[in-house]
Write a structure and sequence with these properties.
The structure is a single chain. By secondary structure, the protein is an all-alpha fold. It is about 35% helix and about 0% strand. It is built from 2 helices and no strands. It has helices at about 10-25, 25-30. The model has no long low-confidence stretch (mean pLDDT about 80).
Length: about 60
């Protein structure tokens, strides 16, 4: 018989933690800081980087 990888309490704790993070955000998101991984050369994409949708001309 296969034994489950995680017990019932661990799964409940993980679910509660995931729900809390989804509602409140991570510690970095709460502080307003984004901490990229070491050596990261990219840039943070925000909502301001998204181009505006083209407007349709009225006839």
């Amino acid at each position: 018989m296969n034994k489950p990888l995680f017990d019932h309490e661990t799964i409940l704790k993980a679910g509660k933690r995931a729900a809390w993070v989804a509602k409140h955000g991570t510690r970095e998101e709460q502080s307003g800081k984004f901490l990229p991984p070491p050596g990261w050369k990219g840039h943070l994409v925000t909502a301001a980087d998204v181009p505006a949708a083209p407007r349709k001309k009225r006839a």
